[in-house]
Amino acid sequence: MDPVRQVEGRAYPWGAKNIDTDIIIPAHWLKTTTREGMGKGAFETVRAQPGNIFDDPRYTGAPVLIAGENFGCGSSREHAAWALGDMGIKAVIAPSFSDIFSGNAFKNGIVTVVLPQEAVDRLVEVARTDEITVDLETMTVTTPFQDRFTFELDPFRRECLLQGLDEIGLTLARDTAISKYESAVADARPWIAVGGGHEGIAVEGAGRT
Q1: In the β-sheet with 148-150, what is the strand arrangement from edge to edge?
Q2: How many Å is the Cα radius of gyration of the chain?
Q3: Residue 93 bridge partners (DSSP)
Q4: 109 with 160: CB under 8 angstroms?
Q5: pLDDT at 158 over 60
Q6: pTM of the predicted model as reported, rounded to 2 decimal places
Q7: Are 94 and 71 in contact (CB under 8 A)?
Q8: Distance of CA 169 to the CA centre of its chain
Q9: Weakest-pLDDT range from 51-60, 90-99, 149-158, 177-186
Q10: Residues 191, 74: Cα–Cα separation, whole Å
Q11: Comparing C-alpha atoms, which of 4, 9, 2, 7 is closest to residue 126?
């Protein structure tokens, strides 16, 4: 996972509320087991409508999506985060998110920014013409017009995003501590290191009738 410190650029000024995971990525795309190409199916039903925002050339490749409250509700499919990531989105700004979607987004390097509705409305307005910046180091969203909105994020998730650490990366970062623990266990309880069996261990009463 790539480190995320700052996301800057155009943003999709959508603002739609209660967008569920089926809208983000339809169910028939769940058959795939790879992230690559998932962006083609993102917001498929929305893109079927003429003049939709996701096919507007002004926002092509935008790294930020501005949405309404309760974004990512519905099923727990991680494919929703895969689809957003594959279409280049690094941050989603909304008044609220589904907890499961927020967790999936974090695991895939996408920042979920919670801001009040008034701030979201302002950002939708600005995004129609100008870029915005999401800064994970200062925990702010800013615009060229001196708008500055602060947001909060779980400290653990923030640190993982800043360092680009997913679950595998976190495990590898603790390799030394894990190796020391395993070595200590092997010394203290060698029968576990052998494989959990009881080979060579005398059991009191064994062989008695």
Answers
A1: 6-9, 132-135, 140-142, 148-150
A2: 23
A3: 66, 113
A4: no
A5: yes
A6: 0.81
A7: yes
A8: 15
A9: 177-186
A10: 47
A11: 9
Which of 128, 120, 40, 135 is closest to 79 using CA atoms? Answer: 40
For residue 33, count other CB atoms closer than 10 A to its CB.
Answer: 6
> Could you tell me if 13 and 66 are in contact, meaning their C-beta atoms sit under 8 angstroms apart?
yes
- CA triple 138-143-144, angle to 5 deg: 120
Copy the structure tokens of residue 170.
């976190």
For the beta carbon of residue 126, count every other beta carbon within 10 angstroms. Answer: 18
Is the pLDDT at 162 greater than 50? The verdict is yes
Distance from chain centroid for Cα 49: 27
The 3-state secondary structure of the chain, one letter per residue: CCCCCEEEECEEECCCCCCEHHHHCCHHHHHCCCCCCHHHHCCHHHHCCCCCHHHCHHHCCCCEEECCCCECECCCCCHHHHHHHHCCCCEEEECCECHHHHHHHHHCCCEEEECCHHHHHHHHHHHCCCCEEEECCCCEEECCCCCEEECCCCHHHHHHHHHCCCHHHHHHHCHHHHHHHHHHHHHHCHHHHHCCCCCCCCCCCCCCC
